[in-house]
Amino acid sequence: MANAPHHRAGPHHTGPLTTLAYLVLLISQNIATLLLLPLVIASAVLTLIWVGLPFIILTATLLRTLADTQRRTLGHILHQGRIPSVYRPVPPSGVVARAGAIITDPATWKDLLWLVSTPASVSLVLIPAAFLAHGTLHLLFTLNTLLNLIPNTALYGFYTPTNLPQTLLPLLTGAILLYLAYITTPRAITLYIRFNRLLLSPTEKARLTARVAHLATSRANTIDTQAAEIRRIERDLHDGAQARLVALGMNLGMAENIVETDPETARTMLAEARETTRHALMELRDLVRGIHPPVLVERGLHGAVHALALTHHLPISVTIDLNGRPADPVESAAYFAIAELLTNTVKHSGATHAWIHINHGRNRLVITITDNGTGGADATPGSGLAGIRRRLDAFDGTMNITSPPGGPTIVTLEIPCALSSPKTLPSSATV
Amino acid sequence: MRVVIAEDLALLRDGLIRLLEAHDFTVVAAVDNGPDLQAALTEHKPDVAVVDVRLPPTFTDEGLQAALGARSQVPGLPILVLSQHVEQLYARELLSDDTGAVGYLLKDRVLDIGQFIEAVRRVADGGTAMDPAVISQLLARQDQSGPLAQLTPREREVLAEMAEGRSNSAIAGRLYITEKAVSKHINNIFTKLDLPPSSDDSRRVLAVLAYLNGQ
Fold it and tell me: What GO MF annotations does this protein's record show (chain B) (predicted)?
């Protein structure tokens, strides 16, 4: 069974070598940033005569890309995880408008601060590196003097030992330098990480502004979705059950009128009336299922997902480990997301087996749906997957899709929520 | 025959009482919630119980749970469950103790009084009565492997009819074949599903169970 990670491995899992590798990566990013500095200055100067505006857009884009790269890399070694990148939206067109949006965004200025502070960050890491290099040099020099490998050398070009104590002195200074390198390295790294994190983290105000903007969008989406849903229900009732009940009443009324004069026709009409009732009930049942499946009310997510798996065209393995039930709206959103994802799997993936895994941890409901199909799923706007993402947005939920061509497809849904009524329902089944 | 009815909607409960009493059943108890149902079932041990899935106090699957609870105390107690919707999950739970004597029908089936009464009688006699909706869900599912995949289309039709609880002659009538052909198909089904020869009745239940489990 293909297993998706439910939570990305935390930074505390990284060893010293991994940290070192990330550090090298970070510093090379810093150096790349340094190369950007002249470009930024040039575009700033050019802006004074208006020619620089397009360059501002270009350099800002480069700067943001670099800053985001460093944010991501830092996220790998930070305990807090990835640093969020918060920029104000840039209008899609208009050079002046775009440059204006970039210049007035406080995040741009913070990025610039990060840019000009790059020499400081680099030298911070260079201090222990310098200690290490010089210490090693001193040791090698002593070794050379003792063995006389390369004759007539002088330490730093002037220090030439003539007697034994003078020969052994660099050994002492070398040891001190190496010790200094040993004790400054972790501090310098910590300081470097903190410094860059401070400069790259969005201000609290920017973070809150972005959060408010996100909430406004997701609320508008939620209201739209619900209004559309209510319209659909109204239309279904109006055209379906309601119309059938009218027909039923008419049939019964006519049967009542002719029951004595033409009992045979009356009987036919009564049979028709019964048939109409059956159709109306069938439509109402489908409608109810579309609003909120009865099995979800009766058995919760646990039973409903099992029931879904039972009636599905594909064999589906279900593992659910929940200590209670999420709130009703979350339960319903999760159920419909799962149902939609399974429908997608059947329609597009060509899979022969699917796996559903549901658990709850760190105050999040985590749902993983995996199939062994051909992959290539993506949430393009207007697709079913994008619809699911929009619905989960209302709960601050997220959807991650991993679907390389050739498969497998792994979709992970995470919805922040608490569980109520503690009861243990661990179970697993293959259908 | 003695019947216990559990239905929380008074209108429907009265209708069921009237319907069953008109067909020579004696309603010994008619209750409207889960706890009362389980008490009535263990006290009266009726010939058959007609039970609504969703009952007070929780308005979830209280009726089903009470029925399953009573069946664990009175093994093989015949239960006919009525519901606004059908779930295979529930059908399996009802059939899980392998004793038959269960039915699981949509409430709509009450509209066809003749068939409904027949289903109640069949469950009281220890048979099964599964709703065609459960069966059609199963037929819609593609079985890629397993013994069920070996069945011919005709044998699958016969098994579907059997799962609904029909007798050989009823199946013959519905599929326009002779009773002899029906029993031949049924024997083939038993062989293909690897069901050892014992009494035909329990083999029928086992075949239906295998069918519902999609094995």
Answer: DNA binding
Comparing CB atoms, the residue among B54, B111, B137 nearest residue A311 is B137
Cβ separation B54–A306 shorter than 8 A: no
Handedness of CA B40, B43, B44, B48 (dihedral sign): positive
Integer Cα distance of B142 and B139 in angstroms? 7
Say if CB A98 and CB A57 are below 8 A apart: yes
Confidence of residue A11 (pLDDT cuts 50, 70, 90): very low
d(CA A269, CA A281): 18
**pLDDT of amino acid A20:** 78
* Gap between the Cα atoms of A188 and A122, Å rounded: 10
pLDDT digits (tens, 9 = 90+) for B34-76: 999 999 998 999 999 999 999 988 888 999 999 999 888 888 8
The answer to whether A289 faces chain B, any CB pair under 8 Å, is yes
A419: β partners? A326
Written as one string, the DSSP assignment of B72-130 is HHSTT--EEEEESS--HHHHHHHHTTS---EEEEEGGGGGSHHHHHHHHHHHHTT-EEE
Residues in A touching B87 (Cβ below 8 Å): 294-295, 307
pLDDT tens profile A411-422: 999 999 999 865
Cβ-based contacts of A288 with chain B (< 8 Å): 84-85
* CA contacts within 13 A on the Cβ side of B91: 30
Instruction: State how far the Cα of B97 lies from the Cα of A183, in Å rounded to an integer.
Output: 71
How high is the pLDDT of residue A194? Answer: 86
Q: Which residues contact B203 (CB under 8 A, 6 or more apart)?
A: B190, B195, B197
Min Cα distance A302 → chain B (Å) is 12
A311 and B111 within 8 Å at the Cβ level: the answer is no
Is the omega angle on the peptide bond into residue A408 within 30 degrees of 0, that is, cis? yes
Structural domains for chain B: 2-140 (3.40.50.2300), 147-213 (1.10.10.10)
Nearest to A226 by CA among A413, A394, A414: A394
Check: complex ipTM more than 0.95:
no
Report how far residue A78's alpha carbon sits from residue A70's, in angstroms, rounded to the nearest whole number: 12
Give the gap in angstroms from C-alpha B179 to the nearest C-alpha of chain A. Answer: 30
Nearest CA in chain A to B133: A282
B84 and A294 within 8 Å at the Cβ level: the answer is yes
The SS3 of residue A317 is strand
Any B CB within 8 A of A292 CB? no
pLDDT, one tens digit per residue, over B105-157 is 999 888 888 889 999 998 998 888 888 888 777 766 655 556 677 788 888 88
Yes or no, beta carbons of A281 and B137 under 8 Å apart: no
Judged by a CB distance cut-off of 8 A, whether residue A277 touches chain B is: yes
A185 contacts: CB under 8 Å, gap ≥ 6: A128, A132
